[in-house]
Amino acid sequence: MKKVAKRYRGFILAAIGMFVLTLFNRELGMKAIDVTAYSFKEMITVIPPVFILLGLLDIWVPKETMTRYMGEGSGIKGILLAFFIGSAAAGPLYGAFPVAAVFMKKGVKFSNIMIFIGAWSTTKIPMFLFEMTALGPVFAITRLLINIPGIIIIAMALSAVSSKNEIATLYSVAE
What we know:
- By secondary structure, this protein is mostly helical.
- The protein has 2 domains: 1-45, no CATH class; 61-174, no CATH class.
- The protein has 10 helices and no strands.
- It has helices at 2-7, 9-24, 26-60, 63-70, 75-88, 96-105, 110-122, 125-134, 137-161, 164-174.
- Helix 2 (9-24) runs antiparallel to helix 3 and helix 6 packs antiparallel against helix 7.
- The protein is globular.
């Protein structure tokens, strides 16, 4: 019982906090519970399909193939593939992290994983299409043209400042 309480202490503290909030301010407490329920429902609809696709990726795509196309010697091909996969993805950013873990397990270069996460968060195709219609093509294209080199620069900088031991530790955790 003590082990379970320790493991879920964050959840337990949040639940107690919501209970106390509801006691003092029922309207605000109910709003917090509604937001939590909405977020939970959203996660439940996103996470299972992501894990199914990850399982298929893990089984169907050999490590050698991933290493060849996105690994250490992949060059521009790996960068473009990381951008394409990240931009074509659907769902919130937290869906990218399990994919990144599978990429690590498959031997994808660290900077390509960072590019993938950056593309997932900022260059999604549906978001670009929405921006084109809602904010205009000048804004959408300008933002995209600024973000693409920014993502690459940040990914390369993260790779440069992260020690080989830190990166190796991340990869070993993913295994």
